[in-house]
Design a protein that fits this description.
By secondary structure, this protein is α/β, with parallel strands linked by helices. It has a single domain, classed as Metal-dependent hydrolases (TIM Barrel, Alpha-Beta Barrel), CATH 3.20.20.140. Helices cover 42% and strands 15% of the residues. The protein has nine helices and eight strands. An eight-stranded parallel sheet has the order 1-2-3-4-5-6-7-8. Helix 5 links the parallel strand 5 and strand 6. Helix 6 runs parallel beside helix 7. The radius of gyration is 17 Å and the shape is globular. 51% of the residues are buried. The chain binds zinc ion (ZN) (2 copies). The site of one zinc ion (ZN) has 5 residues, from loops. One zinc ion binds next to loops.
Length: 259
Amino acid sequence: MVDSHAHLADEAFSADVEAVVQRARAASLTGILCVVDASDPGELIRAHGVLPLWEGLRTTSGVHPHRAAPFAARPAEAAELADARIQAEPLVRAVGEVGLDYHYDFAPRDVQRAVFGEQVRLACDRGLPLVIHTRDADDDTIEVLTREGKGKARGVFHCFSGDARLARRALDLGFYVSFSGIVTFPKAGPVRDAAAIVPLDRLLVETDAPYLAPVPHRGTRNEPGRVGGVVRALAGIRGIDVQAVASASVANYCTLFAP
Ligand SMILES: [Zn+2]
Ligand SMILES: [Zn+2]
């Protein structure tokens, strides 16, 4: 199994990240994509300590929509920060997480769109996939990807929380769709409907740790070793073998992030 999205350099793991990585290996994980925000100096420093812990770790570089506000005057600076890390860190495999979050609106929406657009262009210029975060912003996310990606943008809609309609639009753009512990939440019927229609060769799994622990661990700190709960839930939704979901998601991870 692989975890296509975990924030191992988050402060939540600073005391015991080695044990967290050990538990992931003991749970038969072969890879983890460690998401790092290029505008967070503390996280960047912690990432330097985390990435050498295991050869199965790869990383991303991008500015999260929650952190877009400081780039209002010059959105290109966000992409420049992300690019500086792409140039300096050989384990970077994607631009992300980037996108739009109109649920929390921590940054003005026009600034979020500008910062996102700059990073879509960066991913295309560098030939890297995008890790997309989108929440309550379906139309604008598709619009920015289409306009700035010019048919070249590829990647994954991470921690999918939309419905089957958004999943189809992501698939039509050529993107993968990644599901998290949300598929185990009682109220997540529309997300489960989306999980049922994504073809196996476009399906990814993630924990989004330290967030989104699956049932029955809900509310506690999540970690990559628990990605099996997502794999089992997806197998149940689709009525197929757990092993089929596990091996498809590993193959897709290798195709997209070329680890
Ligand atoms: Zn996210
Ligand atoms: Zn995330």
